[in-house]
Amino acid sequence: MGAAIAAVGLVTQITGTFLPWLKSGSTTRDSYQVLSLRDLAGLDGVAGGVVTGVWVGLTPLAMVTIALYVIRFRRIAACVALLFGTIGGTVALVAAVQGDNKGALVGISTTGPVVTLAGAVLTIVGAITVLTSNRRSAVMTSGGNRELPR
Question: What backbone phi and psi angles, to 5 degrees, belong to 20?
């Protein structure tokens, strides 16, 4: 169950990155279009490259994580999903907290950040569920002893 929740969270989180994150006038931009404006924000150089590389790398990382869940490397996938949810969720939380400036010429659109944040929460909850679940359970025998299934 945890793997399914995490997979839904990963897909929701990636979907949120393609929704509006910034609005200027009547134009909206998704998170990737916002990253292309990094030179204007002063994030050029190494820092801008790292930020862009990590953010653009989230989509392939999500697909790899889902593939790991499918081929039953659930604990490895859950560890990657925790990292994924933490990175995406932190960025989305910061953007969502900044909020929707209704009267501003340029402002943050909350649609993308809120959807991304919801996906991050699902991803983290699913990953924690996978990591804390016990795959094997003890069975009581007729003599009162516990026996693990083989």
Answer: -60, 130
Q: Quote the CA–CA distance of 42 and 148 in Å, as a whole number.
A: 59
CB atoms within 10 A of CB 36: 10
pLDDT digits (tens, 9 = 90+) for 67-93: 999 998 999 999 999 998 998 899 889
Domain range annotation of the chain:
2-134
Token output for 120: 């991050």
- For 83-132, the pLDDT digits (tens) are 989 988 998 898 888 776 666 677 788 889 999 999 999 999 999 999 99
Main-chain phi, psi angles of 41, to 5 degrees = -90, 0
* pTM for this entry: 0.77
Q: 58, 60, 81: which is closest to 4 by C-alpha?
A: 81
Contacts of 65 (CB under 8 A, 6+ apart): 6, 10, 77, 80, 81, 84
